[in-house]
Amino acid sequence: MPDPNLIKTLEKRTVDLRRHLVTMASNGQLIHLGGSMSIAEMMAALFFEFLEVEGKERPKDHFILSKGHTVHALHACLAELGKIDASEFTKLAQMGSRLAGHPSLKAPLVEFATGSLGHGLSVGIGIALAEKLNGSGSRTVVLMGDGEVQEGSVWEAALCAPKFGLENLLAIVDCNGFQANAPVDDIMPIEPLEEKWRSFSWNTHVIDGHELGSILGALEAFPAKKGPTVIISNTVKGKSVPGVEGTARAHFTSLEDHEVREALKALEVESC
């Protein structure tokens, strides 16, 4: 069972990440808020517990944010890690800023510039295979979206990974139910998602992506004895933003002043 004290620590981290995201979406600044908010718990668990991002205590892990439009959640993690200053959030995606609207190699800890969906898993497989051949002990994590797995390239990659026995590869699918303009089910249904991954010979876990105990339990089960692992993380788009969460609007938006106040108040309650 995950340590209750660790869960409390990561819950606080999650609230801090969401506060940063709400700030980014204020003052008329448009961001991909919905998908960034939905992965906050997962990002907190990855960056403040699971991943070795520096390679100081063990081999450096690799993280590919395949759903690159949610880079704001990564920016929030970078601020909490002291890699960037939160003052940079006021210049998101502006000329000269290293914080673009998708992962940029100018920003710390970014290994692959994503944005065109469907490519991250293939890149992750290449990295994981190289690390396996080198015997490094490094792990590779690829975070995708549910709309993204409509891309055929994802399933070509999914076929490939078990062939090479990539126990060091972890894929995560953030299932918040929405893509750019509408619910995923209305654009191109992807269910039964769990059965699909299992049929492609992946070790598959389905969790509540807002429950840190479940997230940590799934991460602790990695690596499996044989083959790659995928975590299907069921979440709510725009989580913790009253009136915005669970809506198509959450995908790419800015928040009015009163919405910022309401969201920060809701997060204050969550932190208690």
Briefly summarize what is shown.
The chain is α/β, with parallel strands linked by helices and 272 residues long.
List keywords for this structure.
single chain; 272 residues; 5 strands; 11% strand; globular
**Net shape:** globular
Please count the beta strands (DSSP E, at least 2 residues each): 5
Structural class, please? alpha/beta
Largest sheet composition: 5 strands, parallel
Q: What is the CATH H-level superfamily?
A: Thiamin diphosphate (ThDP)-binding fold, Pyr/PP domains
Write the layout of secondary structure elements.
Layout: H1 4-24, H2 33-38, H3 40-50, E1 62-65, H4 71-80, H5 120-134, E2 140-145, H6 152-163, E3 169-175, H7 184-187, H8 193-199, E4 203-208, H9 212-220, E5 229-234, H10 257-271
Parallel strand pairs: 1-2, 2-3, 3-5, 4-5
Helix pairs in contact: 1-3, 1-4, 1-10, 3-9, 5-6
Q: Could you please describe the fold and organization of this structure?
A:
The chain has helices at 4-24, 33-38, 40-50, 71-80, 120-134, 152-163, 184-187, 193-199, 212-220, 257-271, and strands at residues 62-65, 140-145, 169-175, 203-208, 229-234. It has 272 residues and is an alpha/beta fold. The chain has one domain: 3-Layer(aba) Sandwich (Rossmann fold). Helix 1 (4-24) packs antiparallel against helix 10. The chain starts with a helix and ends with a helix. The relative contact order is 0.17.
